Amino acid sequence: MQETADTTSASSVAAPRRLAVLGATGSIGTQTLDIVRLFPDRLTVQVLTARRNAARLLQQALEFRPACVVIDDPEGYRQLREALRGTSIEVLQGEQGLCACVQRPDVDVVMAALVGFAGLRPVLAALEAGKQVALANKETLVAGGALVRQTLRRYGGTLIPVDSEHSAIFQCLVGETPASVETLILTASGGPFRTRPLETFDRITPDEALCHPNWSMGAKVTVDSATMMNKGLEVIEAHWLFELPAARIQVLVHPQSIIHSMVTFVDGSTKAQLGVPDMRLPIQYALSYPERWEAPHERIDWARLGRLDFETPDPARFPCLPLAYEALRRGGTAPAVLNAANEQAVQLFLQEQIRFTDIARLVEAALEHLSEPDAVPSYEHLQEADRRARQYVLELAGVAAH
Ligand SMILES: NC(=O)C1=CN([C@@H]2O[C@H](COP(=O)(O)OP(=O)(O)OC[C@H]3O[C@@H](n4cnc5c(N)ncnc54)[C@H](OP(=O)(O)O)[C@@H]3O)[C@@H](O)[C@H]2O)C=CC1
Ligand SMILES: CC(=O)[C@@H](O)[C@H](O)COP(=O)(O)O
Ligand SMILES: [Mn+2]
């Protein structure tokens, strides 16, 4: 748990923080660059990466002039090399490029905003180089939480949460000690299907699932919010970030997404962090911490808001949530299996190859058949668990692997 933040330090005289933005072309990545635009004297960009969106990455590179860009797609790599010829911007490719760029001596902070298991290896590389990682990519901690903790202990890097709930908890914990904490309360919007008749769930379409009531996000996390697997992944993320057992991490449905999460302390007091649902707030806090920087983000209009509502999550409606608790209870490779099966199932659902209700069914089957005990699975062990779970889901869904 962090020490009390010093909010009085004179930030204007400090050298700018030099960022590597992994997943720069996505929802969190582009909002991170919005924050850089707001604070050009305090933040600079050294690295930008994408999977295949070469056009957007090129546009960003020409605006921010980083030292290096990384792209996964071979054709995108060829295009970027051609387009950036004659500039000082280095172009790298693939996972090797990602791991090299996060270890550069001219990078201070790595914004980890890839989606999925692909985020784990570069985060480990960044922590092995002792970097500060602003972590949006929750799948990193879900699949590899024990390994990430071990890497933090060995190399002394730091993790600052970006996920809105974990940022809220992190902010509530400023000035507190671990012994004072009783329970973490993760709030959940309940997604678009909180009140939809349960018997219609097998007719849910991708367009309906991609319509989040409060947040505009990438496709994968949006579908996860609709199944509430997102909250399950966040329970596991909170377990590894704040080192508390599952029994002390609760989930509470709060449809307005104004309270981003809460902490109840041993004296019965509860602290909450509130704000409009705008990811630029937790992104900025992760980049400014331990300072707070003045910014023109929207403020809550309390009178217009009027009320805040709460309810208990319904496990019959959202079976992915108890599955995530079960994976955490099993430990070993179980959370990595849960995560990979979910990633694969969400992809199949978005491609209209399975129904919405199949997501939980496939994840449950993979969890049942594939999890293995192991106190701290190695990266290679996790990678194999991830591969096998994806393959298993494809087979069970009757889809040929590509
Ligand atoms: N969006 C949000 O508001 C929130 C997101 N998060 C978490 O943050 C992470 C990012 O989410 P989000 O920004 O929504 O995702 P997006 O899908 O919008 O963006 C993902 C980014 O990662 C890149 N990428 C995807 N897969 C790979 C890969 N295999 N290798 C290399 N790069 C890859 C994409 O490149 P390209 O564009 O070229 O495909 C893109 O830049 C997720 O873990 C999510 O759960 C957490 C809280 C809120
Ligand atoms: C913005 C953010 O942090 C998302 O993870 C968000 O929490 C999703 O909303 P749900 O509460 O519906 O999962
Ligand atoms: Mn979240």
Key attributes of the depicted protein:
single chain, 402 residues, alpha/beta, Rossmann fold, Rna Polymerase Sigma Factor, Chain: A, seven-stranded parallel beta sheet, four-stranded mixed beta sheet, 11 strands, globular, disordered N terminus, binds NADPH dihydro-nicotinamide-adenine-dinucleotide phosphate, binds 1-deoxy-D-xylulose-5-phosphate, binds manganese (II) ion
How large is the share of residues in beta strands? 5-15%
Query: What is the average of the pLDDT values?
Result: 96
Report the bound ligands by name, code or SMILES.
Answer: NADPH dihydro-nicotinamide-adenine-dinucleotide phosphate, 1-deoxy-D-xylulose-5-phosphate, manganese (II) ion
- Count of alpha and pi helical runs: 16
- Strand order, largest beta sheet: 4-3-2-1-5-6-7
The CATH architecture of one domain is 3-Layer(aba) Sandwich
CATH fold assignment of one domain: Rossmann fold
Tell me the distance between the termini: 43 Å
Fraction in helix: 40-55%
Approximate shape: globular
Rg from alpha-carbon coordinates: 21 Å
- Secondary-structure element order, as H and E? EHEHEHEHEHEHEHEHHHEEEHHHHHH
